[in-house]
Structure formats: structure tokens, C-alpha cells
């Protein structure tokens, strides 16, 4: 019988999750190890975001279990097939996030807060793909960055690699 | 050495200081409420996935972003992430091919950094094609014919290592090193003394393992090991071995060096089997406990057509041994799954490896107009292909990929012409004084290759069999042919 934990979102929704699934979060794993995880675990994550986080964790968990059951023979082939499945799942997952940037950024912060390295780097890559072709002004707006260069300084720094500003 | 340790210390101190300030910026950012309030370490993470071009553009966003993008540790992190361009790490390889009439590439690392020589004014440069910047290296004491660049992971510093030969009384060799952005001149290495006799009749071979900053230079004569010199570019020390352990090979075995998964190894072919002895740990001079035996030549039976052909191993990498059949077809043998992979797509193999980085050195400058023309992705592609087919490094002497001889002239004033590599030259019978098959690196005296007409004759020889390389101050013969075809196709009795 799997050990279950109750996670409480910032908007007071309860999620019942298997220990193995949620232990991927280093933050929660540590809480469990320290014995701090009794009753409901309150998290500073909205229910909408937490649902996404758990969706990711369950998918990853699924993958790890399957791998453990494999014997070495034929593993390579199986891994390849699995990789295809995961890719497909990840594509769907990222398409949804691209469509809703607020969820994407919330999820990014949540994965940082919950210490989920795999999800964090997946999301960082996703964001990187989204911003790679953009111009500085768009990025400033997106990340809410204040331009602290004087016009002269900005002109100079832009001139250093002028070609990088061409599409 | 002492001086370098001091520098490393200084760098560490600077890095530690930097780390401290970094933490405080992080705190200040999390305190400032932003829309998404993304902490600096997450921003860093995101940026590490971006291509160089985007990062150079985003430097103008704010001072914080600029500092972050220019941070040495960030550059390092970015290098190993490589954005969404999935790149397998490849060992950096010394190479030798022309980009155009002016520039020759001497080294290319796995992040696309190039060491170039300007053939016109004999100047040396490091080029970062991703940032379109050049760094002008000081002039080496002797014209280099093997250059190797390596990054010390600990300090982040790059070193360029050069092997040269020169002639005073006897033909001699040596090596020197330079820490990029720190040294303003090349420093002779103690290892030079081990290379002194390398200028003589020698077949040389190198294996480089950039991860630990080691380069092996092996001297082989008549397929017997003479000496193997291992130079650790990190601490700049050298180790030498001159014998292999007893009991692995018999005296009659013909040994050739090659590279087994980044390690120096020696192979011989016994009863159609490939026997490999790997030098597991050079520092401790420890070889593998048993030979690796690959039934390489019996697996050929599966296909009748390729029995009894001239087959030579090139190197082993990523669980595969790469062979060349009859000097043309490349096949791989997966020694883990024990199967042959034919029709290996070398193009795909190469493309996987193109990387980029933000690396910049103190005193780096933007490329000038002429240098700008160097970069054209199409050229690059072509160039790679050509390297693959035509001219691997001059040192990869065991490589039968190219059935061509290199005639290596050490310079007009040098009364010696060195045959760099000469393998069977089909059809080129008019080679007269030059023995038909010459050992690699063998020095042929003036009596055999005359100097001036000699040059003319050499040109003829070149036309028949070889490519003349420049090595001395003035070039006697320029590279005439970019050999991509078997030699005899280039046969011409005389050349104007």
C-alpha cells in the first residue's frame, strides 16, 4: 500500500499524492525526511499550478517505474520507444503552457520553489525557445526589466555586436 | 609554473569574491517585486539555453543582464548546455585545412573555437565564429605544425599548445605553450626535451583527451614503439614511456597506435582479429589488464564482398570501432552489441558536433572585413566534408582514410624534405629517387629530393603523389592539391 500525502494549495485545495510521486520534489522530500510532513502540507502554489506540477511528476514517476522493471535485454529498443512516447507527451504539455504564459511562469516559479530540477530545466528551455528570436524591448516587457543604461551606454553596447540585432 | 599557481590563486580569490556579490544581487532581486518575480538563478537557467546571438542581443537589456551574460561561470554553464542544440561532446581535434587562400585551420574545439594561421603574414589567431571575434596570438618561436587548444575547467583559462620542428644541426622538435589572455609570449615546455629526437625518422601520432588536458605524442618506427610522450597541459608536466608491458604482444607483432575511447592504445591484427591494449591511466602508466579482442575481421564474413580487403581501425568512440575498408568505405562495429553498422552517415555524425560559445578573451576584437568572409555556413559544411575525406591531421599517420602522401618541406632554406606520409602510391612509378613506399615522417635527404628544380621536381612529385606543406619561414611550395581522389588521378609528369 503506497503511502499518501495531502498537499494543500495556496487556495486551500487538497491534493492526495503518493509519496513516490511527490518525493521528486527535493523540498518536500526533505520535509518528509525531517518528519515535518504531518497532516496536510501547505504549499505556496495555486491549485491550478499544483495540478500541472503533479501532472509532470506522475508522468516522470511512470517512466522510472517502467525502467526499473526492465531487464537489460532489449532495453535500448524499449528506451527508444519510450522516448518517443515521452516526447509526444512533453510536446502536448509544452503546447498548453505556451498558450498560457501566466501558467508557464507560475509553474516555473513553483518548480524552483519545490526544487524539481528536471521540470525546471524543461521549462527554462521552453522559455528560452520562446524568447530566442525576440528583440530586447519585448524581453524587457516580458521579464519586467528596467533599462538602467543611459542612451549613450545602450548605443555603445548595441554597437558592439550590431549584427546580433538583425533578424 | 610558480607564476601560474599564483595566477590560479588570484582567479580563485576573484571567483570567490564574485560569488559573494552574486548572492547579494540575488537577494535584492527577490526583494524587488516584479510581475513574475523571477529569481536571478532561474533567469540564469533560462539564458543558459539561449543561442549566442540572442545573448549578445540581450546584453543591452539591463546592467544586471549584461553582467550575468558576461560572467565567466555563466559562459561555462552555457557552453555545456548549448541551448536546444543537442550536442554530443567531441574531443577537440587538431586539424589542418585551408579555409581560403589566407587562412588555415589548425585546431577546432567542440564549441567551434578555431585556431587559425594566416598563411600570408604567418600570424596566429583564435576565432570565435559565434561572437564573430578574433584574438591575435603572439607569434610562436617556431612555426607550429600541431596546435592544440584546451580549457582548464578549474580556472576556465584556455591554453594553446604548439609542437614544432626546426633545424639547426640536426632536425629537432619541441613544444611550447601559451595561456590565452595572460601570457604575452609563448613559454617553452620542459617536455620539449622529449621531443628533440622527434624531428628525425619518426612516425608520429597523437591522441588528445581534452577533458583532462592531456595530449599523447607517440613515436613509432617500423611499427615498434619508440617512445610515447604524454603532456599534461594542466600542470604542464610530461611523462614518457618507451616500452609496453610484457606478455601482450609478441616481438613480431606490428604495432600501431590509435585512439580507444579517448585513450591512447596500441593495436595489432592477429589471425584476422583486432587486438587492442589500452593505456588506462597514463599517470600511473597503467595499461588495461587484458587486451581487448575484437573479432573484427571475421564478422566481415557476413558479406562475401568484404572479405580479405584492406581494413584498418581508425578509432573507437561511443562504443563503436570505426574501420575503413579499402581506403574508401567507412564502417563501424558496435563492440557492445557486437554488430556492424554499415553506411555510416558521417555527415550526421559531424553535424551533431557543431557547438557555439560566448568565450571571449582579454583583448579580443571584432573581426575585420576580410575575416568576416570566413564564415559562411555553407562553406563550413563543405569544409567539414572535405576534412573528413581529404586531410585529417598530418599526424594521424595510421589513418588509411587518405591514400595520399604528404610531402612536407620544412622550408626553402632547409636542405631537407620530409616525407610526411607516404603510403602505397598506385601508379606513381616515376617517383625516381623517392622510394616507392616511405615510412611516415621519414626524412629524405637533399640527395633524394633536390631543392630547387628540386622544387620543380618536387612539384612534379607533388603532382604525382603528395601535397607540399609549408613549414618554414618562406613557403617553398604551396599546397597544390586538395587531394580528394586517389593519387594516381593527379598524376602529371610535370607541372609548370
| H and E order of chain A | EEHHEHHHHHH
User: Low-confidence parts of chain A lasting 5 or more residues at pLDDT below 50?
Assistant: none
Structural class of chain B: alpha+beta
Could you say which overall geometry of chain A the principal axes of the C-alpha atoms support?
A: elongated
Class from helix and strand fractions of chain A: mainly alpha
Distance between the termini of chain A: 57 Å
Q: Into which percentage range does the β-strand content of chain B fall? A: 25-35%
Percent helix of chain B, as a range, is 10-25%
Largest interface: A-B, 35 and 35 residues
Q: How far is the N terminus from the C terminus of chain B?
A: 52 Å
Tally of strands of chain B: 27
Say what oligomer this is: heterodimer
Helix content bin of chain A: 55-70%
Written overview of the protein:
- By secondary structure, chain A is mainly alpha-helical.
- Chain A has helices spanning 19-22, 26-33, 47-69, 75-99, 101-113, 117-131, 136-143, 151-160; strands at 4-8, 14-18, 40-42.
- A three-stranded mixed sheet of chain A has the order 2-1-3.
- In chain A, β1 and β2 form a beta hairpin.
- Chain A starts with a strand and ends in a 7-residue tail after the last helix.
- By secondary structure, chain B is α+β, with helices and mostly antiparallel strands.
- Helix content of chain B is 21%, strand content 31%.
- Chain B contains ten helices and 27 strands.
- Chain B has helices spanning 2-31, 40-47, 52-58, 63-70, 72-81, 192-195, 346-351, 369-372, 377-389, 453-465; strands at residues 93-98, 103-108, 114-118, 123-128, 133-137, 144-151, 158-167, 171-179, 187-188, 203-209, 214-221, 224-232, 237-241, 256-260, 263-270, 273-281, 286-287, 292-294, 311-317, 320-325, 329-334, 339-341, 365-366, 405-409, 416-421, 443-445, 466-469.
- In chain B, the strands form five sheets. In chain B, strands 14, 15, 16, 17, 18, 19, 20, 21 and 22 form a nine-stranded mixed sheet that branches. In chain B, strands 1-2-3-4-5-23 form a six-stranded antiparallel sheet, with no helix packed on it.
- The radius of gyration of chain B is 24 Å and the shape is globular.
- Chain B starts with a helix and ends in a 27-residue tail after the last strand.
- Mean pLDDT of chain B is 63; it is low at 1-8, 14-34, 83-92, 347-353 and 376-496.
- Chains A and B meet through α5, α6, α7 and α8 of A and α2, α3 and α4 of B.
Amino acid at each position: 500500500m503506497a503511502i499518501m500525502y495531502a498537499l494543500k494549495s495556496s487556495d486551500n485545495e487538497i491534493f492526495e499524492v503518493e509519496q513516490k510521486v511527490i518525493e521528486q520534489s527535493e523540498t518536500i522530500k526533505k520535509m518528509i525526511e525531517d518528519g515535518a510532513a504531518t497532516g496536510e502540507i501547505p504549499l505556496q502554489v495555486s491549485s491550478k499550478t499544483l495540478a500541472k506540477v503533479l501532472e509532470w511528476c506522475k508522468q516522470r514517476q511512470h517512466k522510472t517505474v517502467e525502467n526499473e522493471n526492465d531487464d537489460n535485454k532489449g532495453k535500448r529498443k524499449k528506451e527508444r520507444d519510450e522516448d518517443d512516447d515521452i516526447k509526444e507527451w512533453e510536446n502536448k504539455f509544452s503546447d498548453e503552457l505556451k498558450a498560457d504564459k501566466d501558467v508557464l511562469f507560475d509553474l516555473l516559479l513553483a518548480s524552483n520553489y519545490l526544487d524539481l530540477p528536471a521540470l525546471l530545466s524543461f521549462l527554462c528551455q521552453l522559455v528560452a525557445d520562446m524568447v530566442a528570436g525576440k528583440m530586447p524591448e519585448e524581453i524587457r516587457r516580458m521579464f519586467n526589466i528596467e533599462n538602467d543604461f543611459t542612451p549613450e551606454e545602450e548605443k555603445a553596447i548595441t554597437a558592439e555586436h550590431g549584427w546580433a540585432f538583425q533578424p | 609554473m610558480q607564476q601560474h599557481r599564483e595566477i590560479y590563486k588570484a582567479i580563485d580569490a576573484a571567483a570567490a569574491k564574485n560569488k559573494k556579490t552574486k548572492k547579494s544581487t540575488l537577494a535584492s532581486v527577490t526583494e524587488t517585486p516584479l510581475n513574475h518575480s523571477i529569481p536571478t538563478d532561474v533567469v540564469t537557467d533560462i539564458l543558459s539555453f539561449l543561442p549566442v546571438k540572442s545573448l549578445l542581443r540581450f546584453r543591452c537589456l539591463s546592467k544586471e543582464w549584461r553582467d550575468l551574460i558576461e560572467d565567466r561561470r555563466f559562459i561555462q554553464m552555457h557552453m555545456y548546455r548549448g541551448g536546444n542544440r543537442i550536442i554530443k561532446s567531441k574531443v577537440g581535434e587538431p586539424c589542418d585545412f585551408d579555409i581560403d587562400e589566407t587562412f588555415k585551420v589548425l585546431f577546432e574545439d567542440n564549441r567551434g573555437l578555431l585556431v587559425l594561421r594566416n598563411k600570408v603574414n604567418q600570424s596566429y589567431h583564435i576565432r570565435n565564429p559565434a561572437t564573430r571575434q578574433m584574438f591575435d596570438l603572439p607569434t610562436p618561436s617556431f612555426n607550429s605544425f600541431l596546435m592544440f587548444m584546451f580549457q582548464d575547467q578549474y580556472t576556465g583559462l584556455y591554453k594553446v599548445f604548439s609542437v614544432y620542428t626546426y633545424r639547426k644541426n640536426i632536425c629537432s622538435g619541441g613544444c611550447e605553450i601559451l595561456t590565452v589572455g595572460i601570457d604575452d609570449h609563448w613559454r617553452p615546455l620542459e617536455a620539449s626535451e622529449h621531443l628533440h629526437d622527434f624531428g628525425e625518422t619518426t612516425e608520429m601520432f597523437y591522441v588528445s583527451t581534452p577533458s583532462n588536458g592531456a595530449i599523447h605524442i607517440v613515436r613509432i618506427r617500423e611499427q615498434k614503439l619508440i617512445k610515447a610522450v604524454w603532456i599534461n597541459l594542466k600542470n604542464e608536466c610530461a611523462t614518457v614511456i618507451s616500452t609496453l608491458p610484457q606478455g601482450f604482444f609478441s616481438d613480431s607483432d606490428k604495432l600501431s597506435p590509435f585512439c580507444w575511447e579517448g585513450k591512447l592504445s596500441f593495436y595489432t591484427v592477429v589471425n584476422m582479429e583486432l587486438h587492442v591494449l589500452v593505456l588506462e591511466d597514463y599517470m600511473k602508466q597503467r595499461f588495461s589488464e587484458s587486451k581487448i579482442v575484437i573479432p573484427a575481421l571475421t564478422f566481415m564474413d557476413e558479406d562475401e564482398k568484404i572479405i580479405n580487403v584492406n581494413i584498418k581501425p581508425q578509432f573507437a568512440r561511443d562504443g563503436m570501432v570505426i574501420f575503413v575498408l579499402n581506403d574508401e568505405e567507412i564502417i563501424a562495429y558496435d563492440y557492445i552489441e557486437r554488430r556492424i553498422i554499415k553506411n555510416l552517415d558521417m555527415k550526421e555524425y559531424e553535424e551533431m558536433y557543431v557547438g557555439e560559445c560566448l568565450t571571449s578573451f582579454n583583448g579580443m576584437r571584432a573581426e575585420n572585413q576580410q575575416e568576416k568572409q570566413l564564415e559562411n555556413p555553407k562553406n563550413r559544411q563543405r569544409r567539414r566534408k572535405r576534412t573528413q575525406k581529404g586531410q585529417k591531421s598530418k599526424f594521424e599517420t595510421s589513418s588509411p582514410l587518405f591514400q595520399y602522401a604528404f610531402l612536407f618541406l620544412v622550408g626553402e632554406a632547409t636542405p631537407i624534405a620530409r616525407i610526411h606520409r607516404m603510403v602505397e602510391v598506385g601508379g606513381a612509378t616515376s617517383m625516381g629517387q623517392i622510394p616507392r613506399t616511405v615510412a611516415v615522417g621519414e626524412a629524405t635527404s637533399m640527395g633524394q629530393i633536390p631543392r630547387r628544380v628540386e622544387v620543380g621536381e618536387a612539384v612534379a612529385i607533388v603532382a604525382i603523389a603528395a601535397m607540399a606543406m609549408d613549414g618554414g619561414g618562406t613557403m617553398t611550395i604551396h599546397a597544390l592539391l586538395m587531394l580528394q581522389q586517389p593519387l594516381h588521378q593527379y598524376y602529371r609528369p610535370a607541372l609548370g
